[in-house]
Structures are given as structure tokens and as C-alpha cells.
């Protein structure tokens, strides 16, 4: 896959896919989408970048080790389950907070943070597997 | 969006009454172990801090499980539905005495293993993720014990299976991969059967919540599909629990991983299978259990006998322990086969005892290897001289696993035998007693050869073989080895000498299983 066209296009393509993965993550609460599928799209972006430019370039681009990303996602998901403890409600009961921002209202909620946690777990775990497989192939 | 939402009466759609803080004890073990697992992964490059994270977290889990058991014993079965969605739509976590008791024992065993592993798991294997796997394994096991939703039970099975795969190949040896493949294939087949049975059950009754299933299956009155499902579930969980004839994976794989890993497997994993059998066969499908009871009885006896005969035939101590695990599984199945209150109580008592003693026995094997550097019953010998304390602990544990008084296993077998006699199942009693005798012979042989005999198999009676000149002095036994061994042995003796407390818990557990009304009331009581 080491063609000039692919290597030129890959960074732009991965950037677009990463952006799209965030879009899919955020629309997930009310429409098809969510953390899991968004995470998979992000991993495909990293995989394309890795096929084109090599594994070390991806590791540099990710900045943190994939395992740490997955672990922090798990931590975030667990924390998002907890706030209802202070309100005398069951675990995972959703809490909503409407924040006015630049003229619109943004709904922040615990399910959103849970979904971001799932996204990070999927990104970390799958890209960790993908990267080590690609490394073996080199 | 929130501002424009019309006012809705939420009481119809959600549980709105306040949840007492104590109910959070149901999910606390899972939240704690997940947090600990995530932290241990983040600190994976600091092998020195990892054990402390794990030990601190698991200690908290032990305390929370003690509080949970106390909560269940004082207030009855406890339920919490996730996200406040009313059951059967929200996923319920329901702790009855059986689940809470096993969760507590599992966390105690895991704590002992975490301490034991401090010295016996090499630094590079810690980097590879021993402690995260251990925490996630405990997460999966307690999740399975505390969930009240059958699909959720499947999910926890997956969590603990994936962690166990990781732990099994710790060390990357060829023989470990071989053992792991057998273990993985058989367990994946069992999990697939479990999932297929759950799909069919959902098709039949249209619900996954265990309390709801119990109600709807009762209404079906033991029709054909229910019996078929019971048979399917029995096969799936019997594979997990290592019951004859689908137990060949256990002796083929439990001697390959690190001994601390084998200890946690022997203590927890097969017990999860037995727990699932108790939950599904006794609580959810009592008609199916009645229909299958003779078959379960035969399987139980075959499992006990192959287990204890296998233990008698082995010369590798690790394999011998594997067969002892199987013999114990047979005894618990015998309780399920008989199915009256005393027998179910005996099965619960045995499961609790088995978690502690199998973990302790594998740790004992690790200890024996530490001072003798061999696993072969032909080579080993003279350990009494090297460690009288170790010999005493070994004697207690080995007699305990054979079910001799005054240790905890005796009371479990007493309950089982009493239950079987009460139900007029003389042949189950015969199987239990013969298997007990054979196990006693097997462990007696092990103790005499390893501790009493002066040296290896060529040593003449009465002579103490001296260590071969030039061979290294036996290593100093550190506190991380003594502490878990002594703690587990102490618990086994304590339960054996004062069995009343445990027996009342297991009786209560059996009552809750046999009469699902309190379980159902706990799940639906608040909303209907």
C-alpha cells in the first residue's frame, strides 16, 4: 500500500474520519451512533494512517499509549455511573445539566460521559491490538 | 431541550423513591474493581506500586462484601435496578444470601492471592498485566454472583473469561498456550450454548430479568420447551463447572499457568458454574431440575468418583489438585440433584468452603515447590523437617478438602448426606461417602509422601535424606507466602469449629432459592 497517492491522502482522510467519529459519538444519544461505533471509526482512521505512514507515526500522533487511553476511558465510564449516589438514586441514573453556550443550550449528561468513556476504551483497546498486529507485519 | 420538555409523570416510567445508600453495596464491588483495574493499567510500568493498588482495592471490596452480606441477612434480598428503570426493563442487581456469601468468599480468596503474588509473580509478568487481570477477574466473578439478569450473567461470564485467558498465558510458555487453547475452546463452546439457551428462553418468556423469568416459567407449568431449556442450561454450566463427562479440559489446563493463577481459577471459576446451576436450575426452572434430577445425580457421582480416583492416580501434585477440584464439583452437583432444603444448603456450604480451600491448596502447592523445587510425588519428600509449620497447614488443608471433621468441608458433606437420606436417595449418599474415602486416601498419600517420607521414593523408612551437597539452601519463606496461607487455613478451621453461623447463612440461602417469592418480591416489591 506504499503508493504516493495513498500516502498523500491518508493524513487528510484520517483527520476527516476522526472528526466524523466525534460527530457519531455525540449524536449517539438520540440517533444511531454512540461511543462504540464512534470508537471503531476512530480506530479505522488510526489504522489507515498506520498503513500509510507506519506504526511509529501513529504512536506519535496518539501521544498517549493506547492502553492508557483505554484505562482512562474505563475510569471515566465508572465515574459517570456514580453521581446518582449523592441524590439517593440507583447507580447509572442519568443526570442532566443544561448549559447555555453562545446562544444555544448544551445538554451535558452522565450518559454522555459514559459514552465518551466507551469511545476511549474502544479506541485504546482496538488500536492497541491493531498497532501490535501491524508492528509484527513490518 | 430540557427547557421545552413538557412535564411528564416520571413515576410511571422510573423508580422514583429514594434508594438507601446501603443498596449501593450491590454495585460497589464492581465499581471498585473496575476503578482499580483501570488504575493498575495506567500504572502498568510501575510494577512496584501495582500490588498495593490491587491489595487496597480488594480489601475495600472485602469490607463492602461483608457489609453487603450483613445487609442481606438483616433486611432480606436486596435489589437495585440500574438507571432507575423499573424491572423487568432495567437491569437488576439482586443479592440473595447465596450470591452475597459467595461474593464475600471470592473477594477473600482474591485478596489472599493478591498478597501471595507479590513475591511469586515476576516483575515482567506484572508489567504484562497480572494485577489488572486479577481485578477484572474479581469484577466478573462478583458481577456474576450479584446480577439479577440472565443476559447480564452472560456478560459477567465474558468479563471473567477474557481476564482468565490473559492470566492463563502469563509467562508465554509453550505448554501454557497448549493448556489455554483447551481451556478456551471448551469454555467458548459452553458460553455459546449458554447464549443460545438464553436466546431461546427470551423467545419463550419474553424477559431476561431472573425474577420475571421465575414467575413466567412457573406459569408454563413444566411444558416441553422449559424442560429442553433446562437441559441446555445444565449442559452449558456443567461444562463451566467441570462436571463429568465434559471436564477433561480442567486437568489438561490447570497445571500449566502460574500457581497463584491456578489458585484463583480453582477457587473461583468452577464455582461460578456451580452458582449458575443453582441459580438457573433451582430458582428459575425447578420443574426442569425435578425432571433432570436422576441425570444430575448420575453426573454428580461420576464427577466425584473420576475426580477422587484421578487424584489417587496422579504423581504430579498440580494435576492431583485439579482432580480434587473436580471431586468437589461432584459433591455440589449432588446437592443440586437431591434438591431439598438440606441438600441445597449443603451445596451452598460446600461452594463457600471450596472457594477457600481450593485457593489455599494451590497456594500450598506453590509453597511446597518453593521449599522442594519439584512437583513430582516421586521426587518430593522430607518437607516436615524443612517446615513443620507448613506440614501442619498442609495437614489441615488436605484433611479439610477430604471432608473430615473438624474442618469446614465436613459440615457441607454432613448437610449433603442428611439431605440425600431425607429424600431417600441412598445411592447419592453412597457416592458421596465412597468419594470421600477415596479423596481421603489421595490426600493422605500426598501428605505422607511429601511431608512424612524422609526423601524421594527410594528413601528407606525411618531415614531422613539429607539435602544433596551443593544444592542451594531452601529459600527463606517470606511473609507474603505465610500470611495468605495462615489466613485461609485459619478461616477453614474457624468455620469448621463454629459452623452454626455459616450454616444459618446457607440455610437461608437454600430457602430463598427453593421459594422464589422473597426474591421476586425484592425485585418487584417496590413497583407493584
UniProtKB/TrEMBL annotation, chain A:
Supply one GO CC term from the record.
plasma membrane
Q: Which residues form a coiled coil?
A: none
The way it spans or sits in the membrane comes to: Multi-pass membrane protein
Q: Which InterPro entries match?
A: CPA3_antiporter_subunitB (IPR050622), MnhB (IPR007182)
Source organism superkingdom: Bacteria
Principal subcellular localisation of the protein: membrane
Q: Which residues cross the membrane?
A: 12-29, 35-57, 69-92, 112-133
Query: Key word Transmembrane helix present in the record?
Result: yes
Domain Na+/H+ antiporter MnhB subunit-related protein residue range list: 5-127
Q: Which UniProt keywords apply?
A: Cell membrane, Membrane, Transmembrane, Transmembrane helix
List localization entries. Cell membrane
Similarity section = Belongs to the CPA3 antiporters (TC 2.A.63) subunit B family.
Name by which UniProt lists this protein: Na(+)/H(+) antiporter subunit B
Say which species the protein is native to: Pseudovibrio axinellae
What gene, per UniProt, encodes this protein?
Answer: mrpB
From TrEMBL, chain B:
Which InterPro entries does the record cross-reference, listed alphabetically? CPA3_Na-H_Antiporter_D, ND/Mrp_TM
* Cellular component per GO, a single term: plasma membrane
The answer on whether this UniProt entry bears the keyword Ribosomal protein reads no
Would the keyword Membrane turn up in this protein's UniProt record? Answer: yes
From the Swiss-Prot or TrEMBL record, state where the protein is found: Cell membrane; Membrane
Membrane topology per record: Multi-pass membrane protein
Q: Which residues form the NADH:quinone oxidoreductase/Mrp antiporter transmembrane domain?
A: 149-437
Q: Which residues form a coiled coil?
A: none
Q: Which UniProt keywords apply?
A: Cell membrane, Membrane, Transmembrane, Transmembrane helix
Main location (coarse class): membrane
Q: Name one Pfam family in it.
A: Proton_antipo_M
Please list every transmembrane segment annotated in the UniProt record, as residue ranges.
24-43, 52-69, 89-116, 128-147, 153-171, 183-205, 225-250, 259-285, 291-313, 320-338, 350-371, 383-407, 427-448, 479-498
Which family does the record assign? Belongs to the CPA3 antiporters (TC 2.A.63) subunit D family.
For this entry, the protein name equals Na(+)/H(+) antiporter subunit D
Tell me what gene encodes this.
Answer: mrpD
Amino acid at each position: 500500500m506504499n503508493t504516493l497517492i495513498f500516502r498523500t491522502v491518508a493524513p487528510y482522510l484520517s483527520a476527516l474520519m476522526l472528526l466524523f467519529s466525534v460527530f457519531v459519538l455525540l449524536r449517539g444519544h438520540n440517533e444511531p451512533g454512540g461511543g462504540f461505533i464512534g470508537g471503531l471509526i476512530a480506530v479505522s482512521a488510526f489504522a489507515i494512517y498506520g498503513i500509510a505512514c507506519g506504526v511509529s507515526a501513529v504512536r506519535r500522533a496518539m501521544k498517549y499509549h493506547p492502553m492508557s487511553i483505554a484505562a482512562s476511558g474505563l475510569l471515566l465510564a465508572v465515574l459517570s455511573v456514580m453521581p446518582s449516589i449523592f441524590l439517593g438514586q440507583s447507580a447509572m441514573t442519568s443526570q442532566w445539566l443544561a448549559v447555555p453556550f453562545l446562544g444555544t443550550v448544551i445538554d451535558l449528561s452522565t450518559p454522555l460521559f459514559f459514552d465518551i468513556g466507551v469511545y476511549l476504551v474502544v479506541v485504546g483497546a482496538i488500536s492497541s491490538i491493531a498497532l501490535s498486529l501491524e508492528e509484527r507485519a513490518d | 431541550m430540557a427547557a421545552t420538555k413538557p412535564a411528564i409523570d416520571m413515576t410511571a416510567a422510573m423508580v422514583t423513591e429514594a434508594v438507601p445508600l446501603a443498596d449501593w453495596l450491590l454495585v460497589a464491588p464492581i465499581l471498585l474493581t473496575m476503578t482499580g483495574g483501570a488504575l493498575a493499567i495506567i500504572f502498568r510500568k510501575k510494577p512496584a506500586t501495582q500490588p498495593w493498588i490491587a491489595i487496597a482495592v480488594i480489601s475495600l471490596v472485602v469490607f463492602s462484601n461483608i457489609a453487603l452480606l450483613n445487609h442481606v441477612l438483616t433486611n432480606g434480598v436486596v435489589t437495585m435496578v440500574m438507571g432507575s428503570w423499573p424491572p423487568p426493563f432495567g437491569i437488576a442487581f439482586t443479592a440473595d444470601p447465596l450470591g452475597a456469601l459467595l461474593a464475600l468468599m471470592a473477594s477473600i480468596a482474591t485478596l489472599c492471592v493478591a498478597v501471595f503474588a507479590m513475591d511469586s509473580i515476576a516483575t515482567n509478568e506484572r508489567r504484562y498485566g497480572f494485577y489488572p487481570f486479577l481485578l477484572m477477574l474479581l469484577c466478573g466473578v462478583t458481577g456474576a454472583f450479584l446480577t439479577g439478569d440472565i443476559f447480564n450473567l452472560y456478560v459477567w461470564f465474558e468479563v471473567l473469561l477474557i481476564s482468565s485467558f490473559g492470566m492463563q498465558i502469563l509467562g508465554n510458555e509453550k505448554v501454557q498456550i497448549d493448556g489455554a487453547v483447551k481451556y478456551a475452546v471448551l469454555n467458548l463452546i459452553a458460553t455459546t450454548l449458554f447464549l443460545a439457551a438464553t436466546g431461546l428462553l427470551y423467545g419463550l418468556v419474553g424477559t431476561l430479568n431472573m425474577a420475571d423469568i421465575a414467575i413466567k416459567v412457573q406459569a408454563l407449568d413444566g411444558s416441553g420447551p422449559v424442560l429442553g431449556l433446562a437441559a441446555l442450561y445444565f449442559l452449558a454450566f456443567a461444562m463451566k463447572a467441570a462436571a463429568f463427562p465434559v471436564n477433561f479440559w480442567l486437568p489438561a489446563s490447570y497445571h500449566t499457568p502460574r500457581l497463584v493463577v491456578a489458585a484463583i481459577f480453582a477457587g473461583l471459576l468452577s464455582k461460578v458454574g456451580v452458582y449458575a446451576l443453582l441459580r438457573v436450575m433451582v430458582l428459575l426452572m425447578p420443574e426442569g431440575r425435578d425432571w433432570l434430577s436422576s441425570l444430575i445425580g448420575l453426573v454428580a457421582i461420576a464427577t466425584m468418583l473420576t475426580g477422587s480416583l484421578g487424584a489417587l492416580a496422579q504423581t504430579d501434585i498440580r494435576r492431583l489438585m485439579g482432580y480434587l477440584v473436580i471431586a468437589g464439583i461432584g459433591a455440589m452437583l449432588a446437592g443440586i440433584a437431591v434438591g431439598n432444603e438440606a441438600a441445597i444448603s449443603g451445596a451452598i456450604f460446600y461452594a463457600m468452603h471450596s472457594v477457600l480451600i481450593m485457593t489455599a491448596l494451590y497456594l500450598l502447592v506453590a509453597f511446597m515447590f518453593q521449599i522442594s523445587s519439584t512437583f513430582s510425588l516421586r521426587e518430593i519428600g522430607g518437607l516436615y523437617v524443612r517446615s513443620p509449620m507448613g506440614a501442619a497447614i498442609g495437614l489441615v488443608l488436605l484433611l479439610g478438602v477430604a471432608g473430615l471433621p473438624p474442618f469446614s468441608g465436613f459440615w457441607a458433606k454432613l448437610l449433603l448426606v442428611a439431605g440425600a437420606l431425607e429424600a431417600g436417595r441412598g445411592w447419592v449418599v453412597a457416592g458421596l461417602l465412597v468419594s470421600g474415602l477415596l479423596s481421603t486416601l489421595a490426600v493422605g498419600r500426598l501428605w505422607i509422601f511429601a511431608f512424612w517420607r524422609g526423601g524421594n521414593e527410594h528413601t528407606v523408612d525411618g531415614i531422613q535424606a539429607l539435602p544433596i551437597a551443593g544444592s542451594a539452601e531452601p529459600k527463606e519463606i517470606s511473609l507474603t507466602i505465610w500470611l495468605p496461607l495462615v489466613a485461609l487455613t485459619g478461616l477453614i478451621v474457624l468455620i469448621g469449629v463454629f459452623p452454626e453461623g455459616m450454616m444459618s447463612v446457607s440455610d437461608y440461602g437454600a430457602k430463598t432459592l427453593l421459594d422464589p417469592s422473597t426474591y421476586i418480591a425484592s425485585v418487584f416489591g417496590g413497583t407493584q
